[in-house]
Specification:
Layout (H helix, E strand, L loop, with lengths): L8 H14 L6 E6 L31 H11 L3 E3 L7 H6 L9 H5 L3 E2 L3 E2 L7 H11 L8 E6 L11 E6 L1 H15 L5 E2 L5 H14 L5 E4 L14 E6 H10 L8 H30 L1
Amino acid sequence: MSEKTTITDDFRNNLKRFLDTLGLEEEPMGLYYTDKKPDTGFCPKRQVSVANKEESGGEINWLSCVLSQVRRARMEKSSAYFDAEHYGCLGGAFFIGFKDTYEEFETYLISSGIPGKMDGEQYVRSPEIGRRFYDTFNPPRATARYLVIKPLSLFKEDEQPETVTFFINNEVLSGLHALAVFMTDDIDAVQMPFGVGCCTLVSWPRRFLKEGKKRAVVGGFDALCRKYMRKDEVSYSISFELLLEMLQKWPESVLGTAFWGQVLKKIRKGKGVRKRITETENDSLQTA
Protein backbone atom coordinates (compact mmCIF):
# COMPACT_ATOMS: atom_id res chain seq x y z
CA MET A 1 0.00 0.00 0.00
CA SER A 2 1.31 3.44 -0.82
CA GLU A 3 2.52 5.46 2.14
CA LYS A 4 1.12 8.76 0.90
CA THR A 5 -2.54 9.41 1.58
CA THR A 6 -4.75 9.56 -1.47
CA ILE A 7 -8.13 10.54 0.04
CA THR A 8 -8.14 14.00 -1.53
CA ASP A 9 -10.65 16.20 -3.32
CA ASP A 10 -9.37 14.87 -6.66
CA PHE A 11 -9.96 11.34 -5.46
CA ARG A 12 -13.49 12.17 -4.35
CA ASN A 13 -14.27 13.81 -7.71
CA ASN A 14 -12.91 10.81 -9.62
CA LEU A 15 -14.90 8.47 -7.40
CA LYS A 16 -18.12 10.38 -8.01
CA ARG A 17 -17.61 10.17 -11.77
CA PHE A 18 -16.95 6.45 -11.46
CA LEU A 19 -20.09 5.87 -9.36
CA ASP A 20 -22.18 7.88 -11.83
CA THR A 21 -20.89 5.67 -14.64
CA LEU A 22 -21.91 2.58 -12.66
CA GLY A 23 -25.32 4.05 -11.84
CA LEU A 24 -24.54 3.79 -8.14
CA GLU A 25 -25.91 6.25 -5.59
CA GLU A 26 -24.34 4.62 -2.53
CA GLU A 27 -20.63 5.17 -2.08
CA PRO A 28 -18.38 2.24 -1.14
CA MET A 29 -17.23 1.50 2.38
CA GLY A 30 -13.56 1.52 3.30
CA LEU A 31 -11.97 -0.81 5.86
CA TYR A 32 -8.90 -0.12 7.96
CA TYR A 33 -7.33 -0.84 11.36
CA THR A 34 -6.37 1.93 13.74
CA ASP A 35 -5.47 2.51 17.38
CA LYS A 36 -7.78 5.53 17.49
CA LYS A 37 -11.37 4.89 18.52
CA PRO A 38 -13.91 6.61 16.23
CA ASP A 39 -15.65 9.60 17.78
CA THR A 40 -19.03 8.34 16.58
CA GLY A 41 -20.45 5.22 15.01
CA PHE A 42 -21.92 1.82 15.71
CA CYS A 43 -20.31 -1.11 17.47
CA PRO A 44 -21.55 -4.33 19.11
CA LYS A 45 -22.20 -4.51 22.82
CA ARG A 46 -19.23 -5.28 25.06
CA GLN A 47 -18.53 -8.98 25.50
CA VAL A 48 -15.97 -11.23 27.15
CA SER A 49 -12.56 -10.35 25.73
CA VAL A 50 -11.30 -12.77 23.10
CA ALA A 51 -8.15 -12.98 25.23
CA ASN A 52 -10.27 -15.01 27.66
CA LYS A 53 -10.20 -18.58 26.38
CA GLU A 54 -13.41 -19.46 28.20
CA GLU A 55 -16.72 -18.50 26.64
CA SER A 56 -19.12 -16.40 28.68
CA GLY A 57 -20.89 -18.82 31.05
CA GLY A 58 -19.67 -21.69 28.91
CA GLU A 59 -22.50 -21.03 26.46
CA ILE A 60 -22.65 -20.34 22.75
CA ASN A 61 -23.43 -16.64 22.61
CA TRP A 62 -24.24 -14.35 19.71
CA LEU A 63 -25.03 -10.69 20.26
CA SER A 64 -24.96 -9.28 16.75
CA CYS A 65 -23.68 -9.93 13.26
CA VAL A 66 -20.80 -7.84 11.91
CA LEU A 67 -22.99 -7.12 8.88
CA SER A 68 -25.71 -5.67 11.11
CA GLN A 69 -23.34 -2.96 12.33
CA VAL A 70 -22.11 -2.33 8.80
CA ARG A 71 -25.71 -2.01 7.62
CA ARG A 72 -26.41 0.61 10.31
CA ALA A 73 -23.29 2.52 9.26
CA ARG A 74 -24.40 2.41 5.63
CA MET A 75 -27.87 3.71 6.45
CA GLU A 76 -26.64 6.50 8.73
CA LYS A 77 -23.49 7.33 6.69
CA SER A 78 -21.38 6.65 9.77
CA SER A 79 -18.75 4.21 11.03
CA ALA A 80 -19.00 0.62 12.20
CA TYR A 81 -16.15 -0.37 14.49
CA PHE A 82 -14.99 -3.44 16.38
CA ASP A 83 -12.29 -4.51 18.82
CA ALA A 84 -11.34 -7.47 21.00
CA GLU A 85 -14.25 -6.81 23.36
CA HIS A 86 -16.80 -5.56 20.82
CA TYR A 87 -16.94 -8.12 18.03
CA GLY A 88 -20.56 -9.24 17.72
CA CYS A 89 -20.05 -13.01 17.79
CA LEU A 90 -17.13 -15.37 18.30
CA GLY A 91 -17.07 -16.29 14.64
CA GLY A 92 -16.92 -12.62 13.75
CA ALA A 93 -14.03 -12.08 16.17
CA PHE A 94 -12.10 -14.83 14.37
CA PHE A 95 -12.81 -13.62 10.84
CA ILE A 96 -12.15 -9.91 11.47
CA GLY A 97 -8.80 -10.67 13.07
CA PHE A 98 -9.26 -10.32 16.83
CA LYS A 99 -9.30 -14.01 17.74
CA ASP A 100 -6.47 -16.41 16.94
CA THR A 101 -8.50 -19.61 16.99
CA TYR A 102 -12.01 -20.72 16.17
CA GLU A 103 -14.40 -22.44 18.56
CA GLU A 104 -15.16 -26.11 17.99
CA PHE A 105 -18.91 -25.45 17.94
CA GLU A 106 -18.46 -23.35 14.77
CA THR A 107 -17.65 -26.49 12.76
CA TYR A 108 -21.04 -27.85 13.84
CA LEU A 109 -22.80 -24.56 13.23
CA ILE A 110 -21.90 -24.47 9.52
CA SER A 111 -22.73 -28.17 9.12
CA SER A 112 -25.05 -30.58 10.92
CA GLY A 113 -25.53 -28.76 14.22
CA ILE A 114 -25.57 -30.20 17.76
CA PRO A 115 -28.74 -32.17 18.55
CA GLY A 116 -30.72 -30.55 21.32
CA LYS A 117 -28.42 -27.53 21.47
CA MET A 118 -28.02 -25.88 18.09
CA ASP A 119 -29.39 -26.18 14.58
CA GLY A 120 -26.86 -26.58 11.81
CA GLU A 121 -26.77 -24.25 8.80
CA GLN A 122 -25.91 -27.15 6.47
CA TYR A 123 -23.40 -25.19 4.35
CA VAL A 124 -21.15 -28.25 4.44
CA ARG A 125 -22.11 -31.88 5.01
CA SER A 126 -20.20 -32.62 8.21
CA PRO A 127 -18.27 -31.00 11.08
CA GLU A 128 -15.13 -32.65 9.68
CA ILE A 129 -15.43 -30.70 6.43
CA GLY A 130 -16.16 -27.56 8.43
CA ARG A 131 -13.06 -28.18 10.53
CA ARG A 132 -11.00 -28.56 7.37
CA PHE A 133 -12.09 -25.08 6.30
CA TYR A 134 -11.32 -23.48 9.67
CA ASP A 135 -7.98 -25.27 10.03
CA THR A 136 -6.69 -24.07 6.66
CA PHE A 137 -8.18 -20.62 6.28
CA ASN A 138 -6.17 -18.50 8.78
CA PRO A 139 -7.74 -15.02 8.52
CA PRO A 140 -5.20 -12.17 8.66
CA ARG A 141 -4.82 -10.82 12.19
CA ALA A 142 -5.87 -7.34 13.25
CA THR A 143 -3.03 -4.86 12.84
CA ALA A 144 -4.29 -2.31 15.39
CA ARG A 145 -6.80 -2.06 18.24
CA TYR A 146 -9.87 -1.18 16.17
CA LEU A 147 -11.34 -2.31 12.88
CA VAL A 148 -13.26 0.58 11.31
CA ILE A 149 -15.58 0.32 8.31
CA LYS A 150 -17.04 3.57 6.99
CA PRO A 151 -18.01 5.41 3.79
CA LEU A 152 -15.02 6.68 1.84
CA SER A 153 -16.30 10.26 2.13
CA LEU A 154 -15.67 10.08 5.89
CA PHE A 155 -11.98 9.27 5.54
CA LYS A 156 -9.67 12.06 6.61
CA GLU A 157 -6.56 12.99 4.67
CA ASP A 158 -4.35 11.03 7.10
CA GLU A 159 -6.47 7.87 6.81
CA GLN A 160 -6.30 5.26 4.08
CA PRO A 161 -8.35 2.06 3.73
CA GLU A 162 -6.87 -1.38 3.18
CA THR A 163 -9.86 -2.60 1.22
CA VAL A 164 -13.03 -1.12 -0.24
CA THR A 165 -16.47 -2.72 -0.51
CA PHE A 166 -19.29 -1.86 -2.90
CA PHE A 167 -22.82 -3.07 -2.15
CA ILE A 168 -24.34 -3.66 -5.56
CA ASN A 169 -26.91 -5.50 -7.65
CA ASN A 170 -26.27 -7.84 -10.56
CA GLU A 171 -26.28 -5.12 -13.20
CA VAL A 172 -23.50 -3.17 -11.49
CA LEU A 173 -21.69 -6.42 -10.71
CA SER A 174 -21.53 -7.17 -14.44
CA GLY A 175 -19.58 -3.97 -14.99
CA LEU A 176 -17.27 -4.32 -11.99
CA HIS A 177 -16.61 -7.96 -12.83
CA ALA A 178 -15.48 -7.02 -16.32
CA LEU A 179 -13.43 -4.10 -15.00
CA ALA A 180 -11.49 -6.30 -12.55
CA VAL A 181 -10.53 -8.69 -15.35
CA PHE A 182 -9.60 -5.76 -17.62
CA MET A 183 -7.42 -4.13 -14.96
CA THR A 184 -5.55 -7.27 -13.91
CA ASP A 185 -5.31 -9.19 -17.22
CA ASP A 186 -6.44 -12.16 -15.13
CA ILE A 187 -9.58 -14.10 -16.05
CA ASP A 188 -9.70 -15.38 -12.45
CA ALA A 189 -9.56 -11.90 -10.93
CA VAL A 190 -13.09 -12.15 -9.52
CA GLN A 191 -13.57 -14.74 -6.80
CA MET A 192 -16.68 -16.00 -5.02
CA PRO A 193 -15.10 -17.99 -2.16
CA PHE A 194 -16.83 -19.89 0.62
CA GLY A 195 -17.38 -18.02 3.87
CA VAL A 196 -19.90 -16.30 6.10
CA GLY A 197 -20.73 -12.63 5.56
CA CYS A 198 -17.88 -11.13 7.57
CA CYS A 199 -15.44 -13.63 6.05
CA THR A 200 -16.15 -12.49 2.49
CA LEU A 201 -16.34 -8.84 3.58
CA VAL A 202 -13.14 -8.73 5.64
CA SER A 203 -11.09 -11.94 5.69
CA TRP A 204 -10.89 -12.97 2.03
CA PRO A 205 -10.12 -9.49 0.63
CA ARG A 206 -7.41 -8.98 3.28
CA ARG A 207 -5.99 -12.45 2.65
CA PHE A 208 -5.66 -11.82 -1.08
CA LEU A 209 -4.09 -8.43 -0.33
CA LYS A 210 -1.60 -10.02 2.06
CA GLU A 211 -0.71 -12.59 -0.60
CA GLY A 212 -0.09 -9.83 -3.14
CA LYS A 213 -2.95 -10.96 -5.37
CA LYS A 214 -5.21 -8.48 -7.12
CA ARG A 215 -8.60 -10.06 -6.54
CA ALA A 216 -12.19 -8.89 -6.30
CA VAL A 217 -14.27 -10.84 -3.79
CA VAL A 218 -18.01 -11.22 -4.29
CA GLY A 219 -19.82 -12.16 -1.08
CA GLY A 220 -22.83 -11.79 1.12
CA PHE A 221 -24.28 -15.27 0.54
CA ASP A 222 -24.44 -16.39 4.17
CA ALA A 223 -28.15 -16.96 4.93
CA LEU A 224 -27.83 -15.35 8.37
CA CYS A 225 -26.37 -12.13 6.97
CA ARG A 226 -28.90 -11.78 4.14
CA LYS A 227 -31.37 -9.93 6.35
CA TYR A 228 -28.84 -7.10 6.60
CA MET A 229 -28.61 -6.77 2.82
CA ARG A 230 -31.13 -5.78 0.18
CA LYS A 231 -33.03 -8.38 -1.77
CA ASP A 232 -30.84 -8.24 -4.89
CA GLU A 233 -27.58 -7.13 -3.28
CA VAL A 234 -24.09 -8.62 -2.98
CA SER A 235 -20.81 -7.27 -1.67
CA TYR A 236 -17.87 -6.62 -4.00
CA SER A 237 -14.55 -6.02 -2.25
CA ILE A 238 -11.18 -5.00 -3.65
CA SER A 239 -7.96 -3.50 -2.37
CA PHE A 240 -7.79 0.27 -2.18
CA GLU A 241 -4.84 0.23 -4.55
CA LEU A 242 -6.88 -1.59 -7.18
CA LEU A 243 -9.66 0.96 -6.76
CA LEU A 244 -7.17 3.76 -7.43
CA GLU A 245 -6.11 2.06 -10.65
CA MET A 246 -9.74 1.55 -11.67
CA LEU A 247 -10.51 5.24 -11.18
CA GLN A 248 -7.82 6.09 -13.72
CA LYS A 249 -8.38 3.37 -16.30
CA TRP A 250 -12.10 2.53 -16.35
CA PRO A 251 -12.87 4.69 -19.45
CA GLU A 252 -10.66 2.31 -21.47
CA SER A 253 -12.76 -0.70 -20.38
CA VAL A 254 -16.29 -1.79 -21.26
CA LEU A 255 -17.54 0.93 -18.89
CA GLY A 256 -16.49 3.51 -21.47
CA THR A 257 -18.37 1.90 -24.34
CA ALA A 258 -21.86 2.10 -25.80
CA PHE A 259 -22.37 -1.48 -24.65
CA TRP A 260 -22.21 -0.34 -21.03
CA GLY A 261 -24.40 2.63 -21.90
CA GLN A 262 -27.21 0.19 -22.64
CA VAL A 263 -26.79 -1.44 -19.23
CA LEU A 264 -26.65 1.96 -17.54
CA LYS A 265 -29.93 2.92 -19.18
CA LYS A 266 -31.48 -0.22 -17.68
CA ILE A 267 -30.05 0.63 -14.24
CA ARG A 268 -31.43 4.16 -14.34
CA LYS A 269 -34.83 2.96 -15.54
CA GLY A 270 -35.01 0.57 -12.60
CA LYS A 271 -34.26 3.29 -10.07
CA GLY A 272 -37.84 4.51 -10.19
CA VAL A 273 -39.03 1.15 -8.94
CA ARG A 274 -36.14 0.88 -6.50
CA LYS A 275 -36.93 4.28 -4.97
CA ARG A 276 -40.49 3.25 -4.20
CA ILE A 277 -39.45 0.15 -2.25
CA THR A 278 -36.27 1.40 -0.53
CA GLU A 279 -38.11 3.00 2.39
CA THR A 280 -39.99 -0.22 3.08
CA GLU A 281 -36.77 -2.26 2.88
CA ASN A 282 -34.92 0.06 5.23
CA ASP A 283 -37.72 -0.15 7.77
CA SER A 284 -37.56 -3.95 7.73
CA LEU A 285 -33.74 -3.94 8.00
CA GLN A 286 -33.84 -1.60 10.99
CA THR A 287 -36.15 -3.93 12.85
CA ALA A 288 -34.31 -7.14 11.87
